[in-house]
Amino acid sequence: MVEHGDIRVVHRGGSKINFREPVLSHDSRLLLCASGECVKVFSSSTEECVHDLQGHTDLVTGVLLNPSNHLQAYSCSADGTVRLWDFTDGILIKVQLHCHHVSVQPLSVSVFSLLMCMCVTLTRLLSSSQGEYIASAKGLHLEVYFFKKQKFSLKEDNKKGAKNTFTCLSCHPKDDCIATGHEDGKIRLWRNFNHKREYTYSTLHWHHSAVSSVRFTPEGTNLLSGGVESVLVQWRYNQETQKDFLPRLGAAITHIAVSPDGELFCTAHSDNKLTVIQSCVKVSAVIQGLVKGESVRTDLMVDPRSKALVLNGKPGHLQFYSLQRDKQLYNLDIVQQEYIHESGLQQFEVVKAAFDTRGNWLATVEERKQKDSTLELNLKLWAYDEQTQSFVLNTTVSGPHEARITAMCFCHTADSQTTMLVSASQDGHFKAWQLESNHYFYEGPFWSCDFVGAYHSLVPECCCFSADGSLLAISFQEVVTVWSPASWELLTTLSQPPGAIRDLCFGRQSCSKYLLGTTAKNLLCCWNLLTCTLEWSTSMDVSLLLSDPLSENMAAFCSHAGCTDLFVFKPSEPRPLFSHKAICSGKVTRAVFAPREEMLESCEESSQWLNRSQLYFLTQYMVNIPLVIDDSVAVTPFYLLLGKHRQQQQEKQDRSFSAERNQLPQGSVAIKELLHTPAHVLPSASFLCSMFVRSLLISEKKSEEEEMESDKEEESECEMEASTMGQGQTAEAQETAAPALTKAQARELRRVKKLDHSWLSSLLDS
């Protein structure tokens, strides 16, 4: 009986790194940030991820340096636990109290211990450096809790259209001053709040929208602020008219952090980015995570060259994201216009994108809706440049169609002499674009329209090429048409049950004679292109259908009751290869098969479809979820035989190794110190060396004493045995008995008995 390895759904990457304020280490070398269910540790100079602190089982909600040990950090999570880490070595030290959020303001040890015992759920919670009070802000309320006095509470109001809602706050490290940011773009500095009715405040104003973060520097000489303007503002404390700016940081600032020595600043941005800044002078490093916009308009794609995941990034861009490194490789500016952060302003968006088979060409569609409801369209063709290792704009087609483009695909044949792109539009036409050679108007190759087609004035919804590029299938509402790209002849139309076609996919390899489609009537249909008839159909609410380019396998995602089921099948076989009920909550919106770097050699039928590719899908709530095969090996008869043989060999090796070596005592303090303590917190080498040598001497002395005791016991046993035998022997036996051994000979015999002769048995077995 064969036990199959499990296929699991795992979160591969793309978590937010801007969810909470980042934390800089005391020496400014490392940067810590909450990222999903783990804490990521980045190098502030190389931008590389040094450690993934994994252990929480739910969203990490806060990170804070340990005030009593600058090499340790606390993290708290929605799983209700607080964990202490050695973040330089990536080691979990201990798990302790229950909490939901920790403060990121530098705290005294006593105040920190008190806060860790509290279940904090407020919007903001910060403490003064002296540990005399903590301040919290939520909505229109500002409250200061004194540990030795009464509570100070203040409620703002929004009368006369004012927007006084608190958005952020920071406590001065030395003075009794609290800085608060507000929705109206103003910053207020609160003083004298230890007297309930005599508090005062001053107002700073530069931001035109809500202030998202404020932070005092460690010495209290400057105040940093940021917002939607993508500008870091540095105010001089007590000289608020003097301020410095660091503009064009790329996206709205959501959080600000300062290193304990004040040398580095770090800003978190709305596009899931961390920017490391040297004292508000220049940007020294940028750590870019997966950009998550309001929606992914393009499909999930895999760059054939870099194997990176490609999808919408920041506005007007495509992002190339490495799934193996969980890091963005680069952004490609498609629109090539400066994005203006203003609500209600219509700007160009990238809505379609496609790669050719080799990765030599990239096609993009951008659109912008005008105030008069007219649609502005641009079709752009990008050529890969070997020198810059990026894509360079080759051809721009303004107004390629008269209405929105519904589908676009390249001819996927790898050995074709011509490169072709087909686009379909709501204007009722599809167009074929072909790469042309040099023309006297142009230098180098360019793209031009080669054919315009239509079918009974119906709207084309989707299109796809066959694997060899000899057929083009285009759906016109409820009709599937099959065309020959060589002559642009309509070869046939396929009948199907009623319902508009939503997806079309050609079979591949041994299943290339099949064409599959899904309909709005919740049907999955399969046509045989050799007979031009419907091969089979089944009732399924398929939200997404896609094929694996490296095998015959196809994947269908079916949504129902708030969940999504997955079915993997071959068009030629009636039963699915793999099915998974409720693979995720919500609806799967995008998916892609990504080729593996190395092919797996799984012999299990249920997981063979993952040998060449991995399936990634995007949901409403999660990003980049792949299906992976469990690392456990299938328990087959061959595995049992091989495993037993290996186990016997391992036991022999262990026996010989244990016979040859002298084991140290298990309770050796020196060994425990060396093996279980991080290197940077160990005592000096001279101290460890002397302690280690003493432990060896003690163990050697004990071993000699034990050997002497065992020799005495064996000698006494031999004497007793000899006396017993002597009493029971007859006279004849005494005459033929061997002469008695001396003590030296008996000791030598005992030593010979202790020798390991397992090598002799292995020779006899061979």
From TrEMBL:
One biological process term from GO is: positive regulation of rRNA processing
GO molecular function (one):
RNA binding
The record's region (Disordered) falls at 703-744
Q: Which branch of life, at top level?
A: Eukaryota
This protein is called what? WD repeat domain 75
Show the taxonomic lineage. Answer: Eukaryota, Metazoa, Chordata, Craniata, Vertebrata
Major site of localization recorded for this protein:
nucleus
**Residue ranges of the C2H2-type domain?**
33-56
Q: WD repeats located where? A: 53-95, 159-190, 204-235
Q: What species is this protein from?
A: Myripristis murdjan
Record's keyword annotation contains S-adenosyl-L-methionine: no
Location in the cell: Nucleus, Nucleolus
Among SUPFAM superfamilies, the record links this protein to: WD40 repeat-like
Comp. bias intervals (Acidic residues): 705-720
UniProt entry keywords in alphabetical sequence: Nucleus, Repeat, Ribosome biogenesis, rRNA processing, Transcription, WD repeat
Checking InterPro entries in the record gives: Beta-prop_WDR75_2nd (IPR057644), WD40/YVTN_repeat-like_dom_sf (IPR015943), WD40_repeat_CS (IPR019775), WD40_repeat_dom_sf (IPR036322), WD40_rpt (IPR001680), WDR75 (IPR053826), Znf_C2H2_type (IPR013087)
Under PROSITE patterns, the record lists: WD_REPEATS_1 (PS00678), WD_REPEATS_2 (PS50082), WD_REPEATS_REGION (PS50294), ZINC_FINGER_C2H2_1 (PS00028)
Question: Could you give one GO CC term from the UniProt record?
Answer: small-subunit processome
Instruction: Extract the Pfam families matched here.
Output: Beta-prop_WDR75_1st (PF23869), Beta-prop_WDR75_2nd (PF23769)
Q: Indicate, by first and last residue, each region the UniProt record lists as having compositional bias (Low complexity).
A: 726-738
